[in-house]
Amino acid sequence: MFSKILIANRGEIACRVIKSARKMGIKTVAVYSDADKAALHVQMADEAVRIGPAPSNQSYLIIENIIEACKSTGAEAVHPGYGFLSENQAFAKALDAANIAFIGPPNGAIAAMGDKITSKKIAADAGVSTVPGYMGVIKDTDEAIKIANEIGYPVMLKASAGGGGKGMRIARNDAECREGFERATSEAASSFGDDRVFVEKFVEEPRHIEIQVLADKHGNAIYLGERECSIQRRHQKVVEEAPSPFIDPATRKAMGEQAVALARAVDYCSAGTVEFIVDKDKNFYFLEMNTRLQVEHPVTELVTGQDLVEWMIKIADGEKLTLKQDDVTLTGWAMETRVYAEDPFREFLPSTGRLVRYQPPAESDTVRVDTGVYEGGEISMFYDPMVAKLITYGEDRDQAIGEMRRALDAYYIRGISHNIPFLAAVMANKRFQDGNITTNFITEEYPNGFSADDLPNDDPATLIVVAAYINQRVAERNAGITGQVSDHPLEIAESWVAVCGDEHTAFDIEFDGVNGDYIVAIGDRSYGVVSDWKIGDPMFVGEIDGAPVCVQIDIEGVGYKLAANGIQRHFKVMLPRVAELQKLMPFKAPPDMSNFLLSPMPGLLVKVSVEEGQTVQPGEELCILEAMKMENVLKCESKGVVKKIHAEQGANLSVDAIIIEFEKDE
């Protein structure tokens, strides 16, 4: 067995590999860019080597630097994780030439499956059903439109070397095909150094279901069930689960056998994933094979009891699979959500910055957190915005969802925006809970984007009751402070008003000395509150009327910001007379910024498409902003004249930075 391995990656996946290596008694080497000098994976590894500046194309993608790090530390093997060089044939060849083991499949399999055009041809030859499409390389936009019309809209434009949702566009007409081809080509070139794009039929109302395979160097290959990955946004997976609520045993067996047949066709060894698109009648079609460890692999590990990283290391060292197909059983249900540094209330725009507070839920038999960050660390603009993967387990799907909802409530992140409110909304969505999902789920359920109105609100009184309890505890603490005027002790009122925006909710609160809880009365309804919460704790964990409750707390001046189930509310608890006077306070309107184009996210201004003095029309391209490896086209909303361009092409912009100022056309 290897005595030392290097992880050619960063973030949560590097930390994940280190954990399995440590369990196996193998020492680890981390690599890092300047932006990751203090990263968690660097702290966890036995050794760490700097490999370059922050941009990935100057550090994590430089093969020579990785090889040199192996030689300088004596690492015998490299685990590539996912992304970066994980599916790069040149990297695997370079390691082989340097006599360093690659913890992954052979070069031929990487080359064959890494090219989507070649992989579909091999899959068809191996008896795997494939989606209708044009497998040749498209030379220009006009040819893309011609082919799209021959196949029939809608079509999917895909980068041949793509992955992770980059270099992919759906087109439903010629205009969308033209723009989609240009954007897919540009993203493919910048992300993968390969601008080839192909076209295939877009299957509507599809499910994205994938099969996990394991194969060794001795001809043994098995599949470990499926993962349901249909909850996606912009082709990027957000929620995954195992098994799928849609797949029956017969379909699972057929998909698994085809996946294994494909693995054998390319002499595959290591862990790999064969992705399928499945229609409403359970017809399935090959999409691609990922010749690496998948982001969502933990859900398979929880329902099968297998450590996929450990198997990858053993297989790379030449060990045989001791697991037979009949030994594979799926027990219970696992759910995974991807916690991203993005703002769901601003069209999921990336959010970078420092994690001022970071407290993930406690891990247990039913909760697992795969993360690569820590409190005080920074979410960089140079890499993927993932903060962590939150995985929960239950005896059945309902239990796994329930565990996930509780774990999301207990995930405390401050300093950046995050998508936990959105994840909470998905978990509470009736259609999701029923398992009635497709890859169009997010588009169909949130057609106008995500807003506070989409959040679940099982009992709107819950946050009011918690605000009342917190206020009472603070008032009791204040009344007990020494040094008060003896003739005028601070008295604690029983009647208060919770003010949230324009809503005023009157309540009474008292301590029940018999039962040891607080009674909060709102109208004709009373709530019993029990908790050992202490002032300063960021979490209220307790019970309301016997039901468990977890609420996140931020004390802001004289008010409280409370969050639970994805919902955030700002409360000020006042005496009744103060609340009445508060209604008379004048409203201060925010400044009018309607004549400005503001940067919706931190990012690089790749292109300014207009000039000062130019008249622009609705829908016209204004500029292109690149953030976290994705290009975003900002378009004009209403007719106007460009008065001034405030930001130059190539500038690094912060959120709400002014890009363009307009004069409205009368």
TrEMBL record:
Coiled coil: none
Domain of life: Bacteria
Keyword vocabulary terms for this entry: ATP-binding, Biotin, Ligase, Lipid metabolism, Magnesium, Nucleotide-binding
InterPro entries to which the protein is assigned, alphabetical: Acetyl_CoA_COase_biotin_COase, ATP-grasp, BC-like_N, Biotin_carboxylase_complex, Biotin_carboxylation_dom, Biotin_COase_C, Biotin_lipoyl, CPAse_ATP-bd
Domain Lipoyl-binding: 588-663
Gene Ontology MF term list: biotin carboxylase activity
Biotin carboxylation domain segment(s): 1-447
Residues of the ATP-grasp domain: 120-317
Cofactor(s) annotated in UniProt: biotin
Name assigned to this protein: Biotin carboxylase
Gene name as annotated: accC
